[in-house]
Amino acid sequence: MATFVLVPGACLGAWAWDDTVRPLREQGHTALPLTLTGLAENADQGGPRTDLDTHIADITGFVERNDLRDVTLVAHSYAAAPVTGAAGRLGDRLERVVYVDSAPFAEGMRMLDLMPPPAAEHLRERVEASGDGWRLPFEDVLGLSSSLDGLDDSRLDQLRKRATPHPFGTYTQPLTGLAEPGDDVDRVLITCNDFTGLLDAGVPMLAYLNQPPWRRFTLATGHWPMTSAPAALADLLDTAVS
């Protein structure tokens, strides 16, 4: 059985994994969702200085404090950035890294680099106007989502009610000091509708993800599978570690 550490995407807390954690535990796995600094129950710990390094330290600190071994580290969406940073620092504690509708970051890369300059500038303006200069509103994150497939009104309303403005410093700070996980670390992708289409289309910058050592699983839903298809996501995670 595996030990999963599940890291949620932007504006979400550990709560976002509830409906995925339940079936994973029923299957016999250890499933430990994590809330990053400045979000959900840790909202009051965030501030203008909360950045990508903060969230990397959250992940490594969680694993080390709990003396976790043979960890399967799971990143959804934004969490790909801090998980990429943490994965190379966990040494032999890490058995596997799983990117859920996301992909690893490169040295020097920022979240803002994933969007066109006008969209990045719009986010900056929104943070200044509505987020006290450091918090990114959830509606802006939702507006950038590649796909809301599978989210009915009830599920979308749940996301909106429970989401927390996201510390914008984690979007503006580049990932630095990157260390690659060891060659023995298993590398897994779980791709949802739009990202699956990009990989199947053979986008050159993503071509390496279609080759070993990467293993890919697909899930026919939108960008928020822990809400739109949590049981199916749990089954794929179980399959990936079996």
Automatic annotation (TrEMBL):
InterPro entries named in the record: AB_hydrolase_1, AB_hydrolase_fold, Sec-Metab_Biosynth_Hydrolase
Keywords of the record, alphabetical order, are: Hydrolase
Coiled-coil residue windows = none
* Keyword field contains Protein transport: no
Q: Name one GO molecular function term.
A: hydrolase activity
Every AB hydrolase-1 domain range: 4-235
Pfam families per the UniProt record, alphabetical:
Abhydrolase_6 (PF12697)
The source's domain of life comes to Bacteria
Protein name, UniProt field? Alpha/beta fold hydrolase
